[in-house]
From TrEMBL:
Keyword Cell division in annotation: no
Matches recorded under SUPFAM superfamilies: Dimeric alpha+beta barrel
Keywords per UniProt: Membrane, Monooxygenase, Oxidoreductase, Transmembrane, Transmembrane helix
A Pfam family annotated for this UniProt entry: ABM
Transmembrane segment boundaries: 21-39
Protein name according to UniProt: Quinol monooxygenase YgiN
MF terms (GO), sorted A to Z: monooxygenase activity
């Protein structure tokens, strides 16, 4: 008999090792629970304003209440495209956060490599995730504009325990 953990958390390729997901979750919580430090670039400043506003609207317990489908994604922009990707995400993020089935939606940019982005998305259920991917803002900004600028895109899905 498999343990509850084995049933709920799918095996994913090495890019999403348990350690990297735990580190990512810790980083996301740190961002979610405390204000972002002032950033030097305009894109990072806009992201900070977006995240701070979002954090005042929901509590962590509100977000995780009732479980849901967790999607963790890692992106890496092609050389010279990172700021364009960040600008697209600045427009996309508020729209994604307002979706009915979204419980928590955070995007962060790596400090040591600004071409890397981490997404931490908690949806009410699979149907909410599918609706997110069918939304006009996803199709326009993510599928239409951002994905062509990426060198790498990896995603994994998890069920909250």
């Amino acid at each position: 008999m498999r343990s509850t953990h084995q049933r709920l958390v799918p095996r994913v390729h090495e890019a999403f090792s348990r350690r990297s997901v735990i580190r990512a979750f810790g980083a996301v919580l740190a961002i979610y629970l405390s204000p972002w430090a002032a950033a030097s670039s305009q894109a990072q400043q806009q992201g900070a304003r977006t995240m701070n506003h979002y954090a005042t609207q929901k509590s962590l317990s509100d977000a995780v209440d009732g479980g849901g489908l967790l999607v963790v994604a890692q992106w890496e922009a092609k050389p010279g495209e990172a700021d364009k990707v960040a600008a697209i995400l600045d427009r996309f993020l508020p729209e994604a956060q307002r979706e009915d089935g979204v419980k928590l939606f955070l995007i962060s940019r790596a400090k040591d490599n600004p071409a890397q982005f981490l997404f931490y998305e908690l949806f009410r259920d699979e149907a909410a995730f599918k609706a997110h991917q069918e939304s006009a803002h996803f199709k326009t900004w993510i599928a239409g504009e951002a994905l062509p600028l990426l060198a790498k895109r990896e995603r994994a899905q998890y069920a909250l325990m």
